[in-house]
Amino acid sequence: MRTLLPLVLGLSLVIAACGDDGGGDEGPLGPRALFKLNPSSAAEFYDLPFPSDLRRDPDGTISLAHFPDPSPRIIVPDYVRAAEELTGFGTTTVVYFRFSESGPKEGELVFTVGNPGSTGRLLTLAQLERMRDVYYPIVLETIAGAIAAMTEYAKTGAKAEQEVRNSMFSLANTQKAFTGYLGEDREAWKQYDASELIRAQRYPRPILIDQGARDKFLTEQLRPELFAEAVRDSGSELQFRMHPGYDHGYYFISTFMEDHLRHHARQLSTA
Fold first, then answer.
1. What does the pLDDT look like over 89-146, one tens digit per residue?
2. Residue 16 burial by CB count (10 A; 0-12/13-18/19+): exposed, middle or buried?
3. 50, CA 20 to 30 Å: which among 2, 82, 95, 107?
């Protein structure tokens, strides 16, 4: 399944090879960026990278034919009509590509696009893997919980629905973007979820977790009780310590760092 990802000019885009037939299927060189000169439906709108001067009409104005509008709001068509009166795109706008989920294989051609400004190209492999394995799953779980809570609240009345409508629309867009990073197969996400990994296989050594009770991310993002439950299910050994008055800042880390260094030293000495 292909996924739409927004990429700012300055983020790296890794694609195996460009295709020009709009099919985007994996060929002998692996996944290809989609490129279709004349999109004929909303589903094909981003098969031509957006923005692009190829979308300009002969008079220089922008053509947004078949622009996808997933929302029921009246204001979106108004924005489209206003944009079609412009005589070109901005120089710092977001660029959208569509491409297949499969990454490049060893030896395949790789292109990197960007500019000398702010960029993610200097991130190490370890940093990218941590974003994939830790940060993105946490963000997606948090967004899903927020959308579910707002959906229930919206059911309480028209005023409530109006209050959360904009926030839900914004969260849904963010959810689409982050879902694209990991793919839409939620079962596949489990290989990056610490709770799922330890639930599936007992960890052979003791685990030590210290948590500040005043951490503002505790209930919505961190949720250590889920990991603790998975540890119990797998029969692993966990020492979980909740500390009143602490958040996750410098004083918290400096207070309990020695305990963790000693904990790891004991594990290494018995390895």
1. 666 555 655 665 666 677 766 655 554 445 566 778 888 888 888 888 888 888 888 8
2. buried
3. 107
Amino acid at 92: T
User: CB of 45 within 8 A of CB of 39?
Assistant: yes
Q: Are 211 and 238 in contact (CB under 8 A)?
A: no
Angle made by CA atoms 106, 107, 110, in degrees to the nearest 5: 95
For residue 19, how many other CB atoms are within 10 A of its CB? 21
* pTM, entire model: 0.43
Query: Rounded to an integer, what distance in angstroms lies between the CA atom of residue 139 and that of residue 165?
Result: 20
CA–CA dist 18, 30 (Å, integer): 10
What the block records as the tokens of 136 is 């993105």
Residue 89: Cβ within 10 Å count = 16
Contact 101, 2 (CB under 8 A): yes
Parts of the chain with a pLDDT under 70: 1-36, 70-75, 89-104, 108-121, 271
Alpha helices in the chain (DSSP H): 75-83, 125-130, 136-154, 158-182, 186-189, 194-200, 224-234, 250-269
